[in-house]
Every structure is written in C-alpha cells, then in structure tokens.
Amino acid sequence: MDIISQLQEQVNTIAAITFNAFGTLQRDAPPVQLSPNYPEPPAATTATDDATPFPEQPKQLSAGLVKAAKQFDALVAALPLSEGGEEAQLKRIAELQVENDLIGQELQKQLEAAEKELKQVQELFGQAADNCLNMKKPE
C-alpha cells in the first residue's frame, strides 16, 4: 500500500476512534447536576461486570487516539520531501497539465475515429440485414 493510502487509512482510523470515544463518553458518563435550580439527576445505571470502569475509559480512549495520531505523524514524516521548492512544483504541475492536455486531445481524436468506425459498421450491418431480408427463394 502506498504512503498516501496509508495516510488515508490512518485518518479513517483516527475518525473512528474519535467517533467511538465521543459515543462511549456520551453513553457512559454519569449524570451531573447543571445548576442548583435543577433537580438532582437520576442515578446512573449499573454497567455490566466485564465493562471497564468509567474513570478508566477516557484514559484508554485517549491513549488509543494518541497512538493513532503518532502513527499518522510517523507516516507524514515518511513522505518524500519536495525537491526544488514551490516554484519547481508549480513548473512540474504546468508540465503535467500540458501533457494531460495533449493526451486528452489524442484521446478525443481516437474517440472520434472510433465513433466514425462504429457508424460505418452499423451502416454495413444495416445493409447486410436488408440484403438478407430481401433475398427470397426462387418460386
């Protein structure tokens, strides 16, 4: 897998960890009284026996997020450095754009030739079909 694909995969991993962390915290956080003017929140429901205690969950979730972020940073550090700076990159982009335009023109010519050939084949097929239909057995 190339480095860009690995970076994309790592961004997806970070997003999934973050999404799961927020969801877990939202689901499992104990209720808190916002103001003395509001009634006392109901007691939290008990978690299953195999669940991680709530005070430990944020630590585990943040550790997973930090690990994924460090892996992302390592992948970014592994990216090749650009050669020649921004000016060289802009020149290379212009060269690639010219090359892309030339190839696009060639493809357009090939498409037009193929469409012309298709039209000829369709005409010949129509003539052959007409000839077959017009042939009658001698009586």
From TrEMBL:
This protein's record includes keyword Nucleus: yes
Pfam family, one: Med21
Gene Ontology terms, MF aspect: transcription coregulator activity
Coiled coil: 104-131
Major location (coarse): nucleus
Subcellular location: Nucleus
Low complexity composition bias: residue spans: 43-53
Gene Ontology terms: biological process: regulation of transcription by RNA polymerase II
Keyword NADP listed: no
Keywords: Activator, Coiled coil, Nucleus, Transcription, Transcription regulation
Segments of this protein annotated with the region Disordered: 28-58
Any one Gene Ontology cellular component term annotated for this protein: mediator complex
Function of the molecule: Component of the Mediator complex, a coactivator involved in the regulated transcription of nearly all RNA polymerase II-dependent genes. Mediator functions as a bridge to convey information from gene-specific regulatory proteins to the basal RNA polymerase II transcription machinery. Mediator is recruited to promoters by direct interactions with regulatory proteins and serves as a scaffold for the assembly of a functional preinitiation complex with RNA polymerase II and the general transcription factors.
Family: Belongs to the Mediator complex subunit 21 family.
PANTHER family: MEDIATOR OF RNA POLYMERASE II TRANSCRIPTION SUBUNIT 21, RNA POLYMERASE II HOLOENZYME COMPONENT SRB7
Subunit and partners: Component of the Mediator complex.
Protein name, UniProt field: Mediator of RNA polymerase II transcription subunit 21
Lineage, highest ranks first: Eukaryota, Viridiplantae, Streptophyta, Embryophyta, Tracheophyta
